[in-house]
Amino acid sequence: MNGQFALYAEKILSSKEYYKKYLNGKINSSQFREAMSADASLSGVEWFNDYSIHRISLMPPDEKLPAETIIKILTDNNLVSTCENMYGGFDEYRKYIRENYNHGEFVTFIYPEDERLLYAVAKITQPKKIFAAGSYYGYFAVWAMKTVSENGGTAVLSDINEKVCELAKENFIKLGYGNNTEIYCEDAEVLLSRRTEPIDMLVLDATGRHDDPRPEYRGKRIYGELLKDAEHLLSKGSVIVIHNMEPENPEMKVLVDELKAIHALGASYDTYNGLGVYITAK
Question: What are phi and psi of 97, to 5 degrees?
Answer without folding.
Answer: -65, -45
